[in-house]
From TrEMBL, chains A, B:
UniProt lineage: Bacteria, Pseudomonadati, Pseudomonadota, Gammaproteobacteria, Nevskiales
Cofactor: pyridoxal 5'-phosphate
EC top class, as a word: hydrolase
Keywords assigned: Hydrolase, Pyridine nucleotide biosynthesis, Pyridoxal phosphate
EC number(s) per entry: 3.7.1.3
Pfam entry (one): KYNU_C
Pathway: Amino-acid degradation; L-kynurenine degradation; L-alanine and anthranilate from L-kynurenine: step 1/1; Cofactor biosynthesis; NAD(+) biosynthesis; quinolinate from L-kynurenine: step 2/3
Assigned protein family: Belongs to the kynureninase family.
Cellular component, GO annotation: cytoplasm
SUPFAM superfamilies xref list: PLP-dependent transferases
Residues that, per the record, bind pyridoxal 5'-phosphate: 97-98, 125-128, 196, 199, 221, 251, 277
Protein name according to UniProt: Kynureninase
Amino acid sequence: MTTRPDLEALDRADPLAPFRERFALPRGQLYFVGNSLGAMPKASAERMRRVVDQEWSQDLVRSWNRHGWVDLPQRLGDKIGRLIGAAPGETVACDSTSVNLFKALAMAVKLRPGRRVIVSDADNFPTDLYMAQGLSGWLGDGVELRTVALDRLDSALGEDVAVVSLSHVNYRTGELFDMAAITRKVHDCGALMLWDLAHSAGALPIELAACGADFAVGCGYKYFNGGPGAPAWIHVAERLHAQVRSPLTGWFGHERPFAFEGHYAPAAGIASLLVGTPPILSMSALEASVDLMLEAPMAQIREKSLRLSAAFIELVEQHCAGHGLQLVTPREPGRRGSQVCLRHAQAWPVMQALIARGVIGDVRAPDILRFGFTPLYLRYTDVWDAVSALAEVLRSGEWQREEFQLRAKVT
Amino acid sequence: MTTRPDLEALDRADPLAPFRERFALPRGQLYFVGNSLGAMPKASAERMRRVVDQEWSQDLVRSWNRHGWVDLPQRLGDKIGRLIGAAPGETVACDSTSVNLFKALAMAVKLRPGRRVIVSDADNFPTDLYMAQGLSGWLGDGVELRTVALDRLDSALGEDVAVVSLSHVNYRTGELFDMAAITRKVHDCGALMLWDLAHSAGALPIELAACGADFAVGCGYKYFNGGPGAPAWIHVAERLHAQVRSPLTGWFGHERPFAFEGHYAPAAGIASLLVGTPPILSMSALEASVDLMLEAPMAQIREKSLRLSAAFIELVEQHCAGHGLQLVTPREPGRRGSQVCLRHAQAWPVMQALIARGVIGDVRAPDILRFGFTPLYLRYTDVWDAVSALAEVLRSGEWQREEFQLRAKVT
């Protein structure tokens, strides 16, 4: 039986413990939603002040040169690349994950002209499915989305498949998939592989290049701690650069944007995936937080993440048994991302009652309680305190209070 | 002959003069590039501090409900709509101007199935041309871009034209076009009209609804003062809402994004044009600056803008004659946006020498000096002082110094 002193000992020995100081955490609360919106690095707030009060206010347009605004998407892209096992020049920060999914799917479909099928996990994050549906419905030339339960992926693969689009970690269950094995299987059928790393990048070691992935996208606001709606990023394997052609040919993707020429000529390499003027305020906040991520060894992040989630699972089973909770996330460490999901018939009011006790998790409809584990700012003892609060909410039945039944617009 | 005391008198009588206090302007400089990147409203800096230090840092995910993050794109879109003569529910803040051009062009082409031509001004802003080229090249089903000198627009119109895409003010010459007359002409040939208002919105009264425009896009970082790379916006006339279908079908454009359903169902109205998670930091800064714009009567902004630019033209002709400057911008007030462009064979070094004297303008290749007029933070006397400095740069020949020849990455 794990005790609170056991966890205190783990905190004392934790090599990542000093990182907690680098975040401005919500006072009096334990925050388990870093998998949805990461906590704020103090350096991001400082960076925002500098960008606003000096770069924008004082240096204005000259900041494009003087403060490197014009290179920010590529500079930041390369930093993100180091966190996902990509080579320099393969990743660029831009747009939203959804828009980047569109680019990647569109490019992939063009690269496999005889094949018209996009395969995806039926339980993929909705926007991944929606962007593929939009593309196929709008193209209307036979491109179609085929969804399948991921454990039956083989049944969906065939010579008609242009691209397989999957999330590395399922947003609802926290299950982690085998990137190398799936990519190999997809390539064996002649299709291209697109990974959505929104729920894994920054949380665990990723080796995109070693796995041979073709495309990847991800967001900046979850484990990268880039701030609400932070810019996303897109990765294209270097071997495809000469062949791909994005449908979104904006001026920042031009070879010479400031020559203001009348004809589009794509920039060499990943820069051709840029579209409009980059959002400097949001992107600067993300750069500051990615710089912080780069200071922490990813292997240590993963090790602590798995220990945190394992402790959570163990403690929930010890202290919350008999209250209708069901573990959704795989128990095997190798199949677990950095979140733990529990099913409960009254997930919504249970979570509201837990939040009222200062433990912040979230809910995914209809019945999933989600807890994200972010090793840079969570302590082992936080896990103990969170499970204690959850046990108390369930034991007392306080979640049945009327105030906890009211649904919010964003769940 | 206009004298400096004449301009001092105009400043004293200026009803917009109090707005200057509301901006944090660059110290010791006169800033004439608000048509490229607007100066920083003090309220934007305050808003950023609140969003960062309270909403992100302390309230985190709960801010989606508590601080109205989830409604920000529509709330801000409606505010922008008031500045461009649109009805509520017709405008939404999202993505970049380039991405919004793609959506509008793609929707327009779908609405006119028998017609395959996109018409644009050969001298339109490059990204407007590039996005159309990308769309047509990528679709490969006969959709093509036809460019024409705008004074010969009639020659390009015909029964094969699906949509005409034009900028309201030319970015290089400052010429303002007649929105009502052109829209009528385009509709007469059965095509749809897309206006890019990047260089006019916030600078002069616009009546999109009264002109019958179908689509419009624009950016947030020029006359709206929303900050570098601020989010853009898109407008679709309400009468088209039931028919249009964006190819970019992301989760924020879904009818019930937080139900996490597997099939895309577009939100009613303009919200279906949203794609990914909105960039809250950048969008909050833009909302603060748009709120400021809404306090100033647009007719007063236009009146002062024209007086500023008229004074600039007059003073340049008085004080800079014989130095090779040529006025590019139309002299007639009704054909002038809120910038004045001068051609000079040595535009680049002349501008660098002027900047060294603390007067900030910019250059557009190959030979255009640009000066933007932003009535909320420029004084009439600033125009006098800028022209005096320009005259001195030209008279002294100091622009010939070696230090002013070096080109920067961003011009």
